[in-house]
Amino acid sequence: MTAVSLTGVSKIFNPGRPDEVAALSGIDLTIPAGQFVSLIGPSGCGKSTLLRLIADLTPASAGTVEVAGKPAARARLDQEYGIAFQQAGLFEWRTVQRNVELPLELRGASRAERRARATEMLALVGLADFAGHYPAQLSGGMQQRVAIARALAVHPPLLLMDEPFGALDEMTRERLQSELLAICAQTGTSTVFVTHSISEAVFLSDRVVVMSPRPGRITATIDVELGTRDDAARQSPAYFAAITAVRRALRGPGPVPDIVEAEGAAAVAAPSPRTSGPASSATAAP
Ligand SMILES: Nc1ncnc2c1ncn2[C@@H]1O[C@H](COP(=O)(O)OP(=O)(O)OP(=O)(O)O)[C@@H](O)[C@H]1O
């Protein structure tokens, strides 16, 4: 089963106008069900645009976008995915519980079903005791967990996340990364995750997709094999080798993009560019 399939996808904003922007070009990407894939690339390379195309929030200029084997527009109507952005985007006047219930309301679920599902999701993200709180009473990390619970409330097979932990401190971010992996493993959810952080991409992903500066193209895909993704994995040679592989793929032949470098990664002996190490196998696009 394929979670996401993009074929020959391009995106041009404002075509034919003086402010025309070629954001994406020739994107081919297939994500099998259950995979965790990160998109990484320099600022403005089209990562968010790619996510929005998958979510059918903006149309492709060329090519096809399928989610769960359906055209993206059909998949959106069928709520085949949940989405979480950098800002949690919670409704301040709704309790945590009622924020999580929202997508179920939109789906016309009964009150009892909404309540049961929201309770289940809040337990999953460790916020069962905060169901009656309002967003302003929660920390940033807790708000982001509510957003994840809301995104998962309809049990979507796919989760789309755009820098969801970007505004959080490092400790909270690492904790939520581990929680997210546990949730995805428990629910079998496929994930497409946009990030600027090489270390975050490597820790979370089965596959890191590296993009070129605008118009964004896929220049390399790096398979990451870390085994159990726990604290020890963050110290493993495999982790650092994968970080090095991603960083080298990002640098490519051009100037170094503004990407968050992983702490300590620079100290690791680097394998030759875009080669397979014990932790990763990198495939450079033609
Ligand atoms: N609605 C829009 N109208 C016109 N241009 C747009 C629109 N949305 C995005 N763009 C342009 O498309 C390009 C890609 O933007 P996008 O936000 O996808 O990049 P990104 O890789 O997510 O950037 P960042 O890492 O800085 O968040 C940029 O040049 C941006 O200015």
UniProtKB/TrEMBL annotation:
Domain ABC transporter: 4-238
UniProt KW Cell division keyword: no
Record organism: Actinoplanes auranticolor
Keywords, ordered alphabetically: ATP-binding, Lipoprotein, Nucleotide-binding, Transport
A Pfam family: ABC_tran
InterPro entries: AAA+_ATPase, ABC_transporter-like_ATP-bd, ABC_transporter-like_CS, ABC_transporter_ATP-bind, P-loop_NTPase
Keyword Lipoprotein applies: yes
A GO term, aspect molecular function: ATP hydrolysis activity
Ranges for region Disordered: 265-286
Source taxon at top rank: Bacteria
PROSITE patterns: ABC_TRANSPORTER_1, ABC_TRANSPORTER_2
Protein name according to UniProt: Sulfonate ABC transporter ATP-binding lipoprotein
